[in-house]
Design a protein that fits this description.
The chain is mostly helical. About 80% of the residues lie in helices and about 0% in strands.
Length: about 600
């Protein structure tokens, strides 16, 4: 038997010392040891440490005392190391590609179908599978699954962790497959037996067509969470790109080969086809060690039950922003005057205060509003969450609080100017992105007003993605839920109060106010539990960012006045091409002059 297979006591002590040093090392510190081959598949820091320890054990490279001295963390190590920002930028880059494709596909949808009853029905029907995608792909399922998977991978070993992942996948596919089958069957029966108005029939048919996407996207969500826990962020971020590409392909096919009434159904079927492609890619990316055996041990069953108990409050807590958006869309669809009554003009009646196309305007505005949320907020939350989960599992409370405050500072530096900028150029964005084909100038103005109201809360939405994950990392789902339920109630009250005087803008303003109120509530709770979210350093970052943002806003306002108003999509695009880069340069320069050090992390490798 070789020495590597039967190490000496001294060598075993060396390995033990290496493991103790690895456990004490702050999360995010890869701690690479000479002789360990670097990994090219995106493996996380924990994987690097384990492989390095194996090499050290075989080669007898380090003694415990030397290892602990070499691996002792420096006192001035930053809470947000470059590797964290590198991961954020990587996810953000993929998200930018996806969002650009998404905006392109939305612009094409607007040009083909216009801001009318057909697109209203599609956008409302798509909100159901899209809500499932946001909840499971970016929210509750990941938040409930990932901390447990990380803990099992660390404490119980890969076989138990993979068994847990397999059990969750199997349960989700079976349960959601059954629910989806029942829902689709019910809709088919209603469509066959009931004599419905054209708007209702189109809405139910499109909903039944796109419901199977729910099952597919949930499968992809679990696989993405596994990859996130292993430090692999690229492939999960590519999944939305596949959806947008197939969607665009389906829309192009519909325009080329189908008559107008059938085109919207081809688009609906293309979404389901995209889900099948995503599942295929996700299944291919799974580690070979994942077992699909039906036999599950008692330990795994207990973990699955615990995850399911945590999933319910997580679903409610993380769904608030999406549920508010869904309620806005349903209310806009229900309160718009039907086409049979002459809908299409601006209606001011008590019964129908909204004009036709309001639901589509809300959808398009939300798509633009979600661009900074997805590019930065979701990317930051995706990268910070596994880090918080590891710190929580290791009992490193001080590092946990510092990591959370680091995330808040990044939100301040990026999302505050993004929020202001979105409100400033709302008209130009709506015109440049959507005003073509059947989408006219009136539709563009309607969408721009809604977008400006949503822009008020970009910073709050990004901050919620970070603060919520801090609670989920410590297995507390009820605190975000309590704040979220209050937000839903506030949004409903404000919807009723604002929809008649402000119409569609009132619905968007209600959502923004409710989002900000939710952040204040959950942030207060987080401060009491994890320490003040806004310490001296964060206050300094906040006021300096505010001054830099005001400087940016003043320059942008002057530029917009000098350039004059735009009447076409091309002119609006030219105004954006001037105003956005100049505004970004002014903000960055002002932030540097004021000493906002966090802004340098955006460009640092």
């Amino acid at each position: 038997m070789s020495a590597a297979e039967n190490p000496s006591p001294e060598r075993r002590k060396a390995v033990a010392g290496e493991r103790r040093a690895a456990e004490q090392r702050p999360a995010g510190d890869s701690g690479a040891i000479p002789g360990a081959a670097p990994r090219s598949d995106g493996g996380g820091p924990a994987d690097t440490v384990d492989r390095a320890l194996e090499v050290a054990a075989e080669r007898g490279m380090a003694q415990p005392a030397e290892t602990e001295e070499r691996e002792r963390p420096r006192a001035d190590r930053s809470i947000g190391p470059r590797s964290d920002w590198a991961s954020v930028r990587l996810v953000s880059a993929c998200t930018v590609c996806s969002r650009i494709l998404g905006l392109g596909r939305d612009a094409a949808m607007a040009a083909v179908f216009g801001n009318g009853p057909v697109l209203d029905a599609f956008t409302v029907a798509f909100r159901v599978p899209n809500l499932a995608r946001r909840l499971f792909g970016e929210g509750a399922l990941t938040a409930a699954f990932l901390p447990r998977f990380v803990r099992l991978l660390r404490d119980a070993g890969p076989p138990v962790a993979w068994g847990f992942a397999t059990a969750v996948l199997r349960l989700l596919v079976l349960f959601l497959g059954l629910v989806t089958t029942i829902a689709v069957g019910t809709l088919v029966v209603v469509l066959r037996l009931k004599d419905l108005q054209a708007e209702w029939r189109l809405l139910l048919e499109l909903t039944a067509t796109m419901l199977p996407y729910v099952v597919l996207v949930c499968f992809v969500a679990v696989v993405s969470a596994v990859l996130h826990s292993l430090g692999r962020f690229v492939l999960p971020a590519v999944m939305p790109i596949l959806l947008n590409l197939v969607w665009l392909l389906g829309l192009g096919t519909a325009v080329a080969y189908c008559a107008a009434p059938e085109r919207i159904y081809v688009v609906a079927w293309s979404i389901v086809a995209a889900g099948v492609l995503q599942v295929t890619v996700a299944a291919w990316s799974l580690p070979r060690s994942v077992s699909w055996r039906w036999a599950v041990g008692p330990e795994i069953r207990a973990e699955v039950r615990a995850m399911l108990r945590a999933l319910t409050p997580l679903l409610a807590g993380l769904s608030v922003l999406q549920v508010n958006a869904l309620l806005d869309g349903l209310l806009a669809w229900a309160l718009a005057e039907p086409s049979a009554n002459g809908g299409g003009s601006a209606s001011g009646s008590w019964r129908y205060p909204l004009e036709a196309g309001t639901a589509s305007a809300l959808y398009f505005a939300q798509r633009v509003f979600q661009f900074p949320l997805g590019v930065f907020g979701a990317a930051l939350g995706t990268v910070v969450f596994p880090r918080l989960a590891r710190l929580s599992a290791g009992g490193q409370e001080a590092a946990f609080g510092e990591t959370l405050r680091w995330g808040i500072r990044q939100v301040i530096v990026v999302a505050v100017p993004a929020s202001v900028g979105l409100m400033l150029v709302a008209d130009e964005l709506a015109m440049a992105l959507f005003q073509r084909g059947a989408f006219d100038a009136a539709d563009s103005r309607q969408t721009a007003g809604v977008l400006a109201m949503y822009g008020l809360s970009v910073w709050a939405g990004c901050a919620l993605m970070v603060v919520h994950r801090a609670f989920y990392a410590v297995d507390d789902q009820w605190t975000p839920l309590a704040a979220g339920m209050r937000s839903v109630v506030l949004n409903a009250v404000l919807n009723v109060a604002l929809v008649w005087p402000l119409r569609g803008m009132g619905l968007a303003l209600a959502t923004s106010v409710a989002t900000i109120a939710q952040l204040l509530l959950v942030g207060h709770r987080a401060g009491r539990r994890f320490g003040a979210l806004i310490d001296v350093g964060t206050w300094r970052t906040l006021w300096r960012t505010a001054v830099a943002t005001v400087s940016m806003a003043l320059v942008c306002v002057v530029l917009l006045r000098v350039l004059g108003g735009a009447t076409t999509a091309g002119a609006a695009a030219l105004r954006l091409a001037v105003v956005v880069p100049v505004g970004a340069i002014v903000y960055y320069a002002a932030a540097r002059v004021l000493g906002v050090r966090d802004v340098d992390d955006l460009l640092r490798r």
